[in-house]
Structure formats: C-alpha cells, structure tokens
C-alpha cells in the first residue's frame, strides 16, 4: 500500500538543485548521515497522537485513504522529523508483546534500499508502526497514475535493481519472506531513489499462516496452502516486473493471462528482440524509448519468476545478476531521471516556545504567547504613534488599536480583524505586531491565505523577526505546504538564536 508519499511538494522558486550525494550504506556502516535513521524505539501513544494531530484524516497518506485496511498517516515528531505511522487494528495483532517483538526484529534490519522501521507502539487497543517518511510517492502512483510524464525506462530498470538489492539484504538478515511485494510497497525518498517498505517484513502469525491482502500479487502456492514461502517473494517480484513493463495495474484475472503470454514469449526471444511481440506487453506511453534487447531480458526474467512451481523460480542472487547489467545511466541521479526537484535536507531545529506552538499548530498556545509578548518586540522601532503631536487622528488610532487588542484578547477574532484593518489604513508607519495579530485572527477565522499574506507583511516591517517566520510556517501548514512551512520554521529558529545571542531585532 502507498504509505509515505507526500501530497504536496513545493520547491522554493529559483532554488538551486544540489548535486546528488552518495547515500551512506547503512548495511555496511558507512556512516555519512548519522541522524538519517534513528535507532529503533518504542514510542508512547501520546507522542504519536500529537505527531499526527490526533490521527487527523487530513494527514492520511494511504493511497486508499480511510478505506485502507491499515491506515498510514504522515506525522512530525517534536524535533521536526517527518515520520509515517501505520495504524493496525487490535484484531490484527491481539498479543501486544508479539507485536513489539516482531517490530523490534524488523527494526534491526537497516539498508539504504529500505524504508527503515524506526519504532512501534502497543498501548491499549492501538498497534502502530513508525517508519521513515518518503516524500515522493509510490511506484504505483508513478506507474499507473502519473500526471505529467510516464516513469522513464531507465528509472524502471533502477526500481527493479533497487528492489532486488533490498530483498538480497533482507535475505542476508534472515528475513527471507516479504509479504505483499507490489507497486504500493515501493516508495521514493527525498533523492527520488526507490526504496522497499519495511512494513512488508512484518508477519501476522496468529495461527501460523501468513496473510496476503492483495490478490493481484498472490503466488500459486498461497492459493493451495494459505502460506507463503521464500520462493513466493520471487513470484511477487515477477509481477512487479510485469507492472514495470506494461505500466498497467493488471487485475488478478488478467495476471495469469500475461504470465502465460510471458512463458510463450520465452521461446520466441528472436521475435522479441526484433520487436514483433514485445508491444503486447510494453507500456505504450514509453513511445518506444527503450532498448528492445533490455526489454526482452526483463520479459525473460519475469517469465522465470512467474513459474507455477516454486522450485523452478530463480533465487535473489540471480535477480541481481540479471538486472544489474541493465543499469546504463548510473551516473544520473534518480530525481533528475524522474524530473522532480530534490528538496534540500534540513536538520531538526531547536525552536522557541512560539516556534514549537506553530510547528504543532497549537493555536491556543500561539494566542497566549502573542498576548504575553504584546508590542514589546517593536520597542525602539520608528513608530509615529510615539513621536507625532497628539492630534485627533492619533487619538482615533489609539482607540482603534485598543478595541482591536481587547477583541484579540477576548478571542473575538472577527472584530479584531475589522479594527486591525482600520488601524492598518490609518497608521503612517505599519506595525509588525498588528500584522501578526491580524494574521493569527485570519487563521482562527479559517482564512489561511490572508493569514499568510499578513505574516509576510510583518516580515517586511521587521525582516528578521522570528514571530513573522513562525506565523508564516503556521499558515503554510494550514495550506498543506509542509516543505515551505519547515523552511519558515528553520529561518525563524535561526533568527531566534541570533536574538538570544545579543542581537536586537
């Protein structure tokens, strides 16, 4: 199932694309980014509930939404790390100790080709898994539901290779069974590299059987015995190869037809290379942009994987030796091949109370902090309210400000908007605090775009004022623009640190 895709990718205009970096080989301890994958741990239910805003439906990232048998949510921990949280029913895992033990075992498996499991939770009726968050959708989305362009052939070959690498590592770690290997289980990380979800390594063994939830990928032996074996993984790999070749989500009733066709095509390799029969399988959206010989080799490999008898299927080492030589553009980064903008990785930031409140979208806390702060951040700023002669106009501005502040304090945000708007039109010198308060009032009134505009105006008044950045982050989160929101939080934290080190806004 699609577990970790981001619904919103919003690169900054004009952002320069960073050069592709070689990821650390987590399996071999190459180091590199020590914070990339935290150690496996048991999380508290309260922490995961907060991270997902109470398991908000707005944060569901399962491709089937709430209809998915086990719903997956996007979440953010206190330190800023994005996570994916998979929520099972208690009936799926009635024994909490078994669930934790199984998750901890999977959590020990680490590899750069895996979406690594970083934690779990088993409190009361809740059974939750926590994994790395993958921002660039699933293979299913890129193959079957693409918007701008189909997945390039070279990227399809890379997917086949990366999956084989992940399975080979799992095999070496004595995790030889992977459940429900399919296009929904392959996700793309921030670099656009395909990774295999570690969720498929979890087994539900209530009665000693392994359960498959996607009949389109069910191996023949499962239909006979109700169990999967290591060779079943090879069969499922073959069905994924079919998807990569055809670009179509083939229904279960048609899979057998295609499998039979592949078997017959194995004996017609010459015709395949000449391109006479390969069109029966190949994705027409590729418009012939592939080498017939490579396509024929992939077709032949799929046919071997889809053998009815498990003993006739190849092993994982054979998969690697078959798809490895097909990689012809190793030097081209995945995000370049896919045509996606790579987001610059940002380390978790240390936020002030206001920053934390905005990050967690705790509107009550934001309101309290803004009230306590008042206008003191603007002390010393040029403000004609303090210096010009006492006139009727000044008196009117003071009264308007007072009524707006009282309404803001009493949470009468509609009235606050009205009076702050009058004040903005009257003041010779704009006030960052007035814009900030009106921004928050707009948020509370459900007008996120206007809130963002005012927070940006506050930044214009005071270019390095942390509050302006934090309020922009809050508005951006409300608008679903998580990447931009994180950038604003990072900027706010930077200016907060400068301020605490003696720099005056």
From TrEMBL:
Q: Please state the Enzyme Commission number of this protein.
A: 2.7.11.1
* Keyword line: ATP-binding, Cell membrane, Kinase, Lipoprotein, Membrane, Myristate, Nucleotide-binding, Serine/threonine-protein kinase, Transferase
Q: Which GO terms describe its biological process?
A: brassinosteroid mediated signaling pathway
Q: Which InterPro entries match?
A: BSK, Kinase-like_dom_sf, Prot_kinase_dom, Ser-Thr/Tyr_kinase_cat_dom, TPR-like_helical_dom_sf, TPR_BSK1_C
Q: Where is the composition biased (Polar residues)?
A: 1-13
Molecular-function GO terms, alphabetical: ATP binding; protein serine/threonine kinase activity
- Give the reaction(s) catalysed: L-threonyl-[protein] + ATP = O-phospho-L-threonyl-[protein] + ADP + H(+); L-seryl-[protein] + ATP = O-phospho-L-seryl-[protein] + ADP + H(+)
Membrane-topology annotation of the record: Lipid-anchor
Major location category of this protein = membrane
**Residues of the Protein kinase domain:** 58-338
Q: Which residue intervals make up region (Disordered)? A: 1-38
Q: Where in the cell is it found?
A: Cell membrane
Question: What's the top EC group for this one?
Answer: transferase
* Secretion signal span: none
The protein's name in its UniProt record:
non-specific serine/threonine protein kinase
Give the species.
Ananas comosus
**Organism phylogeny:** Eukaryota, Viridiplantae, Streptophyta, Embryophyta, Tracheophyta
């Amino acid at each position: 199932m699609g577990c970790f895709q981001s619904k919103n990718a919003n690169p900054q205009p004009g952002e320069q694309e960073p050069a592709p970096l070689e990821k650390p080989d987590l399996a071999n301890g190459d180091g590199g980014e020590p914070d990339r994958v935290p150690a496996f741990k048991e999380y508290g239910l309260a922490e995961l509930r907060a991270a997902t805003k109470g398991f908000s439906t707005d944060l569901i990232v399962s491709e089937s939404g709430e209809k998915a048998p086990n719903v997956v949510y996007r979440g953010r921990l206190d330190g800023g790390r994005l996570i994916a949280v998979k929520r099972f029913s208690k009936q799926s895992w009635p024994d909490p100790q078994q669930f934790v033990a199984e998750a901890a075992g999977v959590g020990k498996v680490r590899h750069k080709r895996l979406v690594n499991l970083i934690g779990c939770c088993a409190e009361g009726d809740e059974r939750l898994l926590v994994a790395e968050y993958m921002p660039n959708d699933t293979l299913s989305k890129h193959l079957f539901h693409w918007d701008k362009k189909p997945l390039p052939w070279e990227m399809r070959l890379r997917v086949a290779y990366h999956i084989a690498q992940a399975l080979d590592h799992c095999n070496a770690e004595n995790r030889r069974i992977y459940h429900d290997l399919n296009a929904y289980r392959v996700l793309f990380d921030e670099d656009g590299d395909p990774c295999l979800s570690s969720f498929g390594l979890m087994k539900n063994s209530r009665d000693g059987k392994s359960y498959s939830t996607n009949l389109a990928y069910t191996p023949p032996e499962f239909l006979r015995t109700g169990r999967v074996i290591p060779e079943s993984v090879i069969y499922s790999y073959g069905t994924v190869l079919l998807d990569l070749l055809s670009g179509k989500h083939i229904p279960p009733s048609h899979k057998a037809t295609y499998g039979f066709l592949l078997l017959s095509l194995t004996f017609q390799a010459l015709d395949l290379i000449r391109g006479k029969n390969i069109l029966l399988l190949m994705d027409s959206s590729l418009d012939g942009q592939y080498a017939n010989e490579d396509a024929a080799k992939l077709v032949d490999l799929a046919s071997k994987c889809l053998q009815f008898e498990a003993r006739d299927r190849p092993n994982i080492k054979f998969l690697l030796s078959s798809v490895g030589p097909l990689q012809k553009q190793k030097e081209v980064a995945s995000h370049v091949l896919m045509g996606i903008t790579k987001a610059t990785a940002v380390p978790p930031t240390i936020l002030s109370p206001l920053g934390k409140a905005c990050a967690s979208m705790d509107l009550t806390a934001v309101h309290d902090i803004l009230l306590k702060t008042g206008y003191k951040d603007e002390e010393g700023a040029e403000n004609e309210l303090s210096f010009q002669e006492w006139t009727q106009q000044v008196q009117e501005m003071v009264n308007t400000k007072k009524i707006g502040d009282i309404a803001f304090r009493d949470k009468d945000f509609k009235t606050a908007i009205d009076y702050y708007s009058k004040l903005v039109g009257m003041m010779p010198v704009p006030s960052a605090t007035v814009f900030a308060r009106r921004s928050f009032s707009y948020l509370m009134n459900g007008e996120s775009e206007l809130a963002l505009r005012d927070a940006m105006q506050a930044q214009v008044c005071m270019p390095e004022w942390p509050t302006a950045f934090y309020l922009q982050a809050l508005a951006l989160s409300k608008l679903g623009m998580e990447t931009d929101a994180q950038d604003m939080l990072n900027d706010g934290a930077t200016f907060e640190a400068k301020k605490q080190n003696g720099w005056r806004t």
